[in-house]
Structures are given as structure tokens and as C-alpha cells.
Amino acid sequence: MRITLASAMGTCFGVQDAINMALDPDFQNNLTVVGQLVHNPQTVERLRENGVRIIERHEIDSITTDNVMITAHGAADSTKQSLKEKGFAVFDASCPLVVRLHKLARFLERKGYFPVIIGKHDHVEIKGVVGNLKKSLVISDPSEVEQLKTYKRIGVVSQTTNRPEKVQEVLAAIQALPQLDDLRFIDTICKPVKDRQEAISELIECDIDVGIVIGGYNSSNTRKLSTLIEDNNIPSYHIERATEIEEAWFEGKKHVGITAGTSTPQDVIEEVHARICTLSQK
Fold first, then answer.
1. CATH number listed for the domain at residues 13-95
2. What is the second-level CATH architecture of the domain 97-185?
3. For residues 97, 99, 101 and 105, what is the CA-based torsion angle, rounded to 10 degrees?
4. Domain 2-10+193-280: which CATH class?
5. What 8-state DSSP symbol labels residue 145?
6. Pairing label, strands 31-34, 67-70
7. What are phi and psi of 114, to 5 degrees?
8. Alpha carbon separation from 121 to 126, 136, 139 (Å, rounded)
């Protein structure tokens, strides 16, 4: 069985910077991360082993460390200010491309556009962006565009991990609104995500007949990679660890493609690759 690794996969620079910051020895046993620093279980385990406490946002009152860190997914300014007012030293590990999304959404608002964010309503990144706007709307699907029928000037940005095709579908629906006078779209999908999605197309062109996608089950960008493979009528298996691999997946298969989300560490990818190599030799 042939095995092909995607040309772009695994941890992106924004995620790696956040991990490096959290593992700084100066924070040893004195750092609380509010939310999932990254959507990867192995990384979360490593952080906890190094004394990093991880809580959800509704648990802020339980923080006992001096230092608090904002995750790579970002947060609203009000969240950061609230933490500072409580006396914590706040360290911001927001991905620079998420910060760019925040700035551009506010830019559109200042210019008089009604801000629309294409993305998942309950995603932490989206909640942070919305928290910095006076009034906005999150659209996840073209069917929701009708909610914009009273707005004549609309400014659109996207969740950084979105599929370009999905964004274009929503944009087309917005452009079709009869009352619309002015639409401005700023592309905020991050390049590492685009690179990993484009690498899926390369795998498809190589005629893979099964796909393995490595990354946290709660990782939006990882799930999208798996969907891209399935959209081409190729079976895709989303896993977090090499131990989850089943031999039956590869029965009768000639070519497996391997990829990973932007929060997946290289050592995890290597473990999965090694396991599949072993199975291919049986």
C-alpha cells in the first residue's frame, strides 16, 4: 500500500508560538489558560504535565495563579480587561491572524458597514470577534442570509479556519439581497489553513483511496480537512492518536493519504505514519 503525506499539514506558527509561550519556565506552576490553548489533546496533556492549569471562561472566579493566558483563538477586549481588573497579569497568545480578523471587523464597523462574520456561531474565535463589535451577525450558512434583508451596507469577514468555498457560497447569497447597496468583503481565512486545504486537493489528484486526518476532535480546521476528502467520495478517518487506527480501514486499499490540522504536533503525525507503514507491510 502506497502512503502519501500532505505537502502542508500540522502545527502552524500561531499555535506553536502559543505553546512555546505557555511552556516558558518562568510560568512554572503559576499559569492559568482560559479555554483550550489549542485544540489538541496531546498538547493539553503536555501543558498540564508542566503545571499549566486550564479552565473554561465561566470558571474565571476559580483562578488561583498570578498569570493568566488568552488562547491562540483570541478573546474580546472586555474579557482581557476584566482579567486585568481582577489583578491578574494577562498574557495574550492570540494568533496574529486572529488579531488581524478582530482589527478588520472593527475597521468595517468604523467605516459604516454592518459587520457580518462567516463562521460557527459557538466557536470561541467568533465569540471573541463579536464581543468587540457594537452590533453584528454571525452567518454559518447561505440559508441564514435572510436575516440581513434590512441592511444596505454590509462588511464581511470570515472565521480564520473556514473553507473558501463555503465563504463564497455565503457571499453569493448576500450579493443577491435586493436591498443591498454596498458589500465589502475582506478575506481573513488564514494562509496555513488554506495551504492545508489545498494540500488535500493534491492528495486527491494523487488518487488516494482512503484518507487519515490527524487532530483534535474539537478542532474546526481538522474536521474541515476530513470533510474535504469525503466530499470527493473517499473514506476519511479523523483520529487523535495512532492507537485509534484500525486495520480494517485499509483492506483492499492501494493508496492512503495522511494530513493533520493546524494544532497537531509533529511527533503525533510521525507516530500515525509509522503505524500505517507497519500495517502496509503486512
1. 3.40.50.11270
2. 3-Layer(aba) Sandwich (3.40)
3. -170
4. alpha beta
5. G
6. parallel
7. -80, 120
8. 7, 12, 8
Same fold, 2-10+193-280 and 97-185: yes
Are 232 and 204 a contacting pair, CB within 8 Å?
A: yes
Sequential DSSP letters for 51-91: TEEEE-GGGGGG--SSEEEE-TT---HHHHHHHHHTTPEEE
Residue 282 is predicted with a pLDDT of: 67
CA distance 258 to 120: 26
pLDDT tens sequence across 139-163: 999 999 999 999 999 999 999 999 9
- For 32-55, what is the mean pLDDT? 90
The reply to whether the predicted model has a pTM over 0.70 is: yes
Specify the residue for cell string 482581557: 80
Single-letter code of the amino acid located at 249: W
Q: What is the pLDDT of residues 178-227, one digit of tens each?
A: 999 999 999 999 999 999 999 999 999 999 999 999 999 988 889 999 99
Q: Hey, which residues are catalytic here?
A: 125
